[in-house]
Amino acid sequence: MTDEMAREKVYWNKMSSQYDQFVETEYQGLYKRARKLFSQYVKRNHKVLDVATGTGKIALTLSKKSKDITGLDISSKMIRIASSRSKGNPRFVVGDAHELDFKRGAFDLVTCCNGLHVFRDPAQAMAEMRRVLTAGGKLVTVTFAFGDAVLGQKMHNWGLFMKYGMPPNWESYTGPEIRSMHYKAGLKILKAIYCWNDPPTVLIVARK
């Protein structure tokens, strides 16, 4: 394990006990919107992987549409909380987005909510998410675009860092930079929109 990965695990394990409160307090509307957007791309027979699943709320929402959902997160404590909420589907596993322990073409759909801007190597994570997709499978991401934020939004975000600590590897990407990640991963972008304004957040739907 690298020092960088160790720092990630320490931060997100520490954050696990207050993660749900953080999301509900600061970003409730955005995450409700994200769950609805992701659900639109799930079919009954789909095998779905939710990367950076956190405490599992998105994966649990997707499990209402498919009986084969897997949620993955680097934090064992996050996964423990998520698993306590599941009756078998979703299945929750501890893992690293940069080295997914799944076979090539294992999933019809991969989702990732607010992971790209905190991954230590987004290009590697994108390559892995593409690898585990079936031919024609889709990657759907929702990502903060703080590079597009106005001053007041950035100041509010720094206030959150003061309260909760700053995640390792945090990057303030713009919408075009996020789109570029998908292009460079060899994916065909089917849809790219700002799905939330405060803070700016980008939805990308891409196909392998």
Q: What does this entry show, briefly?
A:
With 208 residues, the protein is α/β, with parallel strands linked by helices. The protein is 39% helix and 24% strand.
Shape: globular
Structural class: alpha/beta
Our measurement of the CA-to-CA distance between the termini, rounded to an integer number of angstroms, reads: 30 Å
Query: Which CATH class is shown?
Result: Alpha Beta
CATH domain fold name: Rossmann fold
Spatial sequence of strands, sheet with the most strands: 3-2-1-4-5-7-6
N to C succession of SSEs: HHHEHEHEEHEHHEE
Query: In the CATH hierarchy, what is the superfamily?
Result: Vaccinia Virus protein VP39
Number of domains: 1
Q: Compute the gyration radius: what is it? A: 16 Å
Number of helices: 8
How large is the share of residues in beta strands?
A: 15-25%
Instruction: Please estimate the helix content.
Output: 25-40%
How many strands in all?
Answer: 7
For this structure, the quaternary state is single chain
User: Largest beta sheet, briefly?
Assistant: 7 strands, mixed
